[in-house]
Design brief:
By secondary structure, this protein is mostly helical. It has five helices and no strands. The protein has helices at 15-29, 50-59, 71-91, 110-115, 121-139.
Amino acid sequence: MKATHQPPTTGQVTPADLLRMAALYLRRHGWHQGTYYDTSTDTPTPPACAAGAIGIACAGHRVEHFAQLDPDTLADYLATLGAFVDYLDTHYPLFLVDEDGFVIDEHTSPYSWNDDPLCTAELVIAALDDAAKEWDRLHTEGGER
């Protein structure tokens, strides 16, 4: 390699990377329940719910509605949220049931899980980190076991 050769410094960002970024965001800026972001504060980096933190990790900024994302960023958001849902289904199942006792959705809603009164910031951050490890284990050759 010549001294002037500049090797690439970036690789493909994976859902695991974005899950870790979302966990880091919550550690730095705080966790929120009820909406994507805490609207009582006027800051570009408000406390966020798990899905809101994933959105910020994908877009690099607060997004009011994820349908407003460009196609590539939306694809990253949906893949990362899907990886998180897969993890929640296995480790923190929370199924919504209608008034007749029928399961409404066969997958754990990250929104309902985040907003559960028993949920805590520590639990959400740990789940995001653990979901990232799980994604790496399942998708990376030689990944964490």
